[in-house]
Amino acid sequence: MPAVVVFETLFGNTALIAGKVAEGYGDDSVALTTDEVTPEALARADILIVGGPTHSMSIPTEDSLDFVARHRHREHTSLKRGGPLLREWLDTLEHSEGPVAAFDTRYRGPDGRGGSSSILRRLRAAGYHHIVPAEGFYVEQVGEKPEDGARLLHGELDRARAWGESIAAKVESLSD
Ligand SMILES: Cc1cc2nc3c(=O)[nH]c(=O)nc-3n(C[C@H](O)[C@H](O)[C@H](O)COP(=O)(O)O)c2cc1C
Q1: pTM value?
Q2: Is 144 exposed, middle or buried (0-12, 13-18, 19+ CB in 10 A)?
Q3: Which residues does a 6 A CB cutoff place in the pocket of ligand 1?
């Protein structure tokens, strides 16, 4: 049975990681944004995996997105989004005791508290339980400020694929 990976992205990096996690999990798993995911897709999945970018040690807010949009003069097309913010989507999840995993993208650093802790807190509030520790995938800043952009560090896509594989193995071991 597949995994559903639900993600949010501003500059595209978290989308790439989400795709690799789904690929690593296998079984026709899919990576979907909050406007693409449906209750049917969630019901079909063995596990829900949720990821987002880190904004101010949490996940994006209307304020953080507005801040970046103002900075970039609303030129950046990936700022246009159809679905709810990931944090809003998480807050509307139906109660479930199903398994979950969470990840974020973030800068590599000693103080690195990533957005995945905010994701996990919301998933736990809906009843879910996590079966692997939250994972952070590393980006570096492009330009002078965080709002200028980010790109993945070398090797992170492979690490994302391997993380997806390890979650599949964990789900398998739990069902034995
Ligand atoms: C407004 C803003 C705040 C950010 N705050 C943090 C932070 O507190 N910690 C961190 O590691 N990265 C921070 N970043 C960098 C993001 O982690 C990075 O932009 C993100 O991982 C890129 O993912 P995306 O391409 O999917 O948007 C911030 C970026 C922006 C734009």
Answers
A1: 0.95
A2: exposed
A3: 9-14, 53-57, 64, 67-68, 105-107, 112, 139, 146-147, 150
